[in-house]
Amino acid sequence: MSQRQKASKDTNTQPPGVMSVDVIVVGAGFAGLYMLHRLRGIGLKAIVLERGLGVGGTWYWNRYPGARCDVESLQYSYQFSDELQQDWIWTERYAAQPELLSYANHVAERFDLFRDIRFGLTVTSATFDETLTCWSIETSEGFSFQARYCIMATGCLSMINRPEIKGVERFGGELLHTGDWPHGDVSFRGKRVGIIGTGSSAIQSIPIIARSANHLTVFQRTPNYVVPAHNAPLAPDVQAAVKADYPALRARAKTRRNGIDFPAPTTSAMAVTEAEREAVFENRWALGGLSFMTAFDDLLVDKRANDSLANFIRRKIRAAVENPETADRLCPDSIVGCKRLCVDIGYYETFNRTNVDLVDLRDQPIDTVTDDGIIVGCKHIPLDMLILATGFDAMTGALNRIAIRGRSGETLKSKWTNGPKTYLGLAIADFPNLFVITGPGSPSVLTNMLPTIEQHVDWITDCLRYLDEQEIAQIEATAEAEATWVDHVNAVAGGLLYPQCNSWYLGANIPGKPRVFMPYPGFPPYVETCAKVARHGYEGFALTPNASV
Ligand code: NA7
Q1: Phi–psi pair at 118, nearest 5 degrees
Q2: 334 close to ligand 1 (CB < 6 Angstrom)
Q3: Residue 46, Cβ neighbours under 10 Å: how many?
Q4: Residue nearest to atom 33 of ligand 1 (CA)
Q5: Beta-carbon-side half-sphere exposure of residue 118 (alpha carbons within 13 Å)
Q6: Phi, psi of 423, deg, nearest 5
Q7: Residue 73: what are its φ and ψ, rounded to 5°?
Q8: CA 55 to each of CA 27, 107, 153: distance values in angstroms, whole numbers, following the listed order
């Protein structure tokens, strides 16, 4: 029996009753795994609660065909252990989901983490008891835990969005969501497949589904900007060269706004001639991936610069798609990078296939789903399989579905009615001894998630060690520090083009969700602020000594 299977089995045999530990970590994705490792390192007893039956978080759930990281493997990886980063061999420039899941399992086995992870447990509530200075955590399976600290490693894109589409419950064929994909094989062969959504998940899966489906209909509400990944097997000499100088690459990445080591911009787009601009864009197109957004330093600041980039990509779309009407419909008219840029492998070319159709929902929205298809306008499109690639209730969804009650008894969801409020994206006023990894108000989804996760986990670990050394029972962000931070995040985001379009960064994809820009733009200044807060004895936090001190 593998460690993983053993851990799952132990979950089922764990006796009922309240289990007391120092720390409960919710979520066994990359954040929860590293958090557990660090907590053990400072002598704290921690348990990780995970609703899935395995580790990996995003890469456990998103098993749709073509699921792949949009950050290069050699950078989307842990750096806390040099032995790990030297030993693990990546096979492709951009790792696909199965490889990332193997990596997560390897890390969990290598650092003996499985024994402290309880799988198949969905946390439903977390309640702070101020008298006892402890969190009580309940799961829907009836398990109870108590811990001095509670750390939410619940992920930014882990609560799937199933929009209300009329009639969808009546669909008699296979109904799938990219973010909750079945574990077994899914065959498209001979089937008429429909996919709703044209975000990153759809853009990755559409070219693969089209290869074997009898017919694929893509229901697009908003087109996205897509740049080529230029994925390829990772040549051993390239990998060896990076590994020989890993510290330098990791250090360079930490100086970049998004925590990724790309060639840094040397000037602004508006400071060069049109021909020079085009040449730089062509270079970045050839390089591939998210590096596109760092071609110039004003692309997310100056609308004229952004327009020049948008025009460049639209020309690429028109060159790739043979049918001019389809090409027009695939051309976005919004700000590039306002939504996370999509990185593809043959997306636009897929629309040249005879078995692929694009239905533009801006002409006519979906009227209803029927038992055997979708009606748009007066047309019935017959389908054997319907795939929802409709994204996530990002950043706050996974936290809000847990009834988290702080000192006053108010839930976090209620506190966040008008949008999330945190201090540094790490802590929340009225919620003592609770930490969030990559929470709203931190750079998280604007960056390479792995180094961002490591920075948060390291900061929390140092903080807990400090509390222990100083004999502090309780740490809580002050309301003032939180308000100042929320204003600062808004001011920084407001100076960029981000708030000018609808995106899940703003909560705009979920009806009724308050429109607030959630992540903090700028990894290096953020890291410096966190370090300064710690250096100054956890400035902005109220610290309550142990009763006996
Ligand atoms: P996204 O990027 O949120 O994309 C979801 C897509 O689903 C998007 O095209 C939406 O159109 C579409 N959508 C959502 N609801 C509907 C309804 N009701 N009708 C039609 N179309 C709808 O999610 P992904 O999973 O693709 O990617 C999430 C992130 O994962 C991505 O940013 C990367 O960082 C990795 P809309 O744009 O709202 O008009």
Answers
A1: -105, 110
A2: no
A3: 22
A4: 200
A5: 23
A6: -105, 115
A7: -50, -45
A8: 8, 10, 12
Centre of ligand 1 from the C-alpha of residue 522, in Å:
24
Which atom of ligand 1 is nearest to 222's Cα?
A: 39
| Contact between residue 59 and residue 101 where contact means Cβ atoms under 8 Å apart | yes
pLDDT tens digit string along 310-324? 999 999 999 999 999
Separation of CA 391 and ligand 1 centre (Å): 4
pTM, 2 dp: 0.96
- Whether the pLDDT of residue 149 is over 60: the answer is yes
Q: Which of 181, 221, 376 to mutate to test the pocket of ligand 1 (most atoms within 8 A of CB)?
A: 221
DSSP run (H or E) holding 286: helix 274-287
- Which pLDDT band holds residue 15 (cuts at 50, 70, 90)? low
- What distances in angstroms separate CA 6 from CA 11, 56, 300, one per listed residue? 9, 17, 48
Q: Which residues pair with 213 in a beta bridge?
A: 189
Q: Is the CB of 202 under 6 A from ligand 1?
A: yes
Q: Is the CB of 361 under 6 A from ligand 1?
A: yes
Mutation probe of ligand 1 site: the residue of 200, 330, 364 with most atoms within 8 A of C-beta: 200
AA letter at 393: D
> Average per-residue pLDDT in the chain?
95
At how many degrees (to 10) do helices 236-244 and 246-254 cross?
70
The full set of domains in the chain, from first to last, is: 3-159+394-545 (3.50.50.60), 164-224+350-391 (3.50.50.60)
Q: What are 453's two structure tokens?
A: 């996760």
Statement: residue 442 has pLDDT above 50:
yes
> Which atom in ligand 1 lies closest to the alpha carbon of residue 62?
25
Q: 126: part of which helix (H) or strand (E)?
A: strand 123-129
> Phi/psi of residue 389, each to 5°?
-110, 55
